[in-house]
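Moderator note: this is an archived Q&A kept for reference. The question asked for a predicted structure of one protein chain; the sequence and the answer are reproduced below.
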Amino acid sequence: MALLLPILIAFSVLVLFSILKKLQSIRKANYYGSKIPGPPGHWLTGNMSMFQNETSHGLIKMMQEEARKARDQGYSVIRFLLPGQLLVYPITGKATAKILESTTELHKGEGYEFFGPWIGGGLLVSVGERWKAHRKLITPSFHFAKLEGYFDVFNQESKILVDCLEKFSENGETVNLHPYINRCTLDVICETAMGTKVNAQFNHEHPYLQAVEGYTAMMLEYGYSPLMWNPFLFWLFGHKKRQNDFCYTLKKFTGDIIAERKAALESGEAEKSTSKRSMNFLDLLLSKTESNVFTEEDLRQEVDTFMFGGHDTTTTSCSWSCWNLAHNPDVQQKVYEELVKVCGDDPNGDISYEQANQLNYLDRVLRESKRIIAPVPAVERQLQNEMEIDGYTIPAGANISISPFILHRNHHVFKNPEIFDPDRFLPEECAKRHPYDFVPFSAGVKNCIGQKFSILNEKVMVAHLVRNYRIEPMLKFDESLPCFEAVSKPSRGIPVKLIRRI
C-alpha cells in the first residue's frame, strides 16, 4: 500500500500536466483562430461538431462551402479549430503561393507521420540539407531524355491492360476499371523504376497491392479515430501489429527488388535483361550507394517513396480520367479523333514520346479531370515559425493544408466549377489565372518531382484505352465519390461498359 500511493500521485501529476498542456494549446489555438476567418466554434471542442458523423466526401463538401462563403466576403484563408489544433486553408492561388514558395516552411503536417514506418525519411517528408541533397541527386532521373526511354514500357503494359479488358467487351459485362488500372500502374512503376517485372496484371492477388491498400486504408482510419493517436491504445487494439505486418510486406517487396537489381548490376547481367535508359532511377541510387552518398537505408526509403508516390497517385488520376471521359461522351469522341489524327488509326500501334506531346486536347482533358477530382486531396505543412498571409498571423505549430478540392472549385476563377470543360486549360485561359490556382501535384519548392512521369504514363494508358474502346458509365457520376485516404480513391470503383471501336 505504501508503494502504491507514490505511483498514484505520480500518475495524477502526469494526468494533470497533460490536461494543463492541452488547455494551453486550446487557448493558443483559440486566440489565433479568433483573428482568422472561419466558422464559429466551441471554446473547448472548436469546430469538432462539424467533423463528426460526416463521410470524407461530406467533409470536403462542407469545407468547399465554407471556402465559398469566405471568398465571397473577400477573404483568402479560412481556419477550422479542433481541440488544441489550428487548421488553416489558403483558398486563393496568391495565398497558396505564400506557403508553397517558402524555402523555410517545408515540414509536412502531422498526418504524414503515419507513413514514417513505411517510407522513413524519403524525399516526400525529408527537409533541410538532407532533402536538398537527395532532391539534387534524384532530379536527373526525371529529365525528359530519361522519360522518353520509358515509353516502351508505357506502351507494352497499356496494351496488356487493353487485352485484359477484352473479355468484358466481348460479353458485355460491367467492369470496374480501377483495380485493372491499379495493377497496370504497378507493373509500369516496377519496370521503369527498378527493372523488375512483377506481372501484377496477371497476378490479381499480388501481396504488395494488398499491403498498399491496407496501409492507406489504415491512414484514413487513423485520421478520424482519436483513440488511435495514443501509442498505447494503438498497440493495445492491434493496430500496431497490422501496421507492422503491412510494412513488412511493403519493405520486403522493394528490398528484394533492390537486392536483385544490385546483384544483376554486379554480375553484368542488368543490360541484358532490361533497357539501360529505363532503369535510371534505381541505377542512379545504387551508384550513389556505392560512392557512399546514399546509405542502404537511404536507398530503400527513396525507392519506397517513389513506389508510394508513383503508383497510387497515377492509378487514382487515371481512374478518374476514365470516369470523366465516360460521363462526357462528346469529350471522349474528340480525344479519339485527336488520337487517330496524331497517332494513326491502328489501335495496336505504339505511341511515341513525340506523339504524346502533340496530344494537346487529351492533355487538357487530363488536367480538367484533375481539377474536378484531384488525385491527392491535400498537401500539408506544419509551420516552424510564425507566418503572415494577407494580414493574418498564423502561429508556429499550426497546420496549413493546401487542398486542390478547395482551390479547384473557386468559382471566381473557374466559372461553373462543377462542369467538366477541358478548354479551361487552353493557353489563353491559363494565362488569366494565378499559377497556384491549379495545383494537382502541389507546386513551388517541394513540387512533385515525378509529375511529368505520371502525366506521360497516364496519357499513354488513357490513349490506348480510348483508341480501343468506347467507355460508358454504369453509375451516375456522383454515385462513386472520392474516398479520401492518402489518395482520392473512388468509393464504388469505376464501373463501366467497354464497346470495341474496331
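Archived answer notes: The first helix runs from residue 4 to 33.
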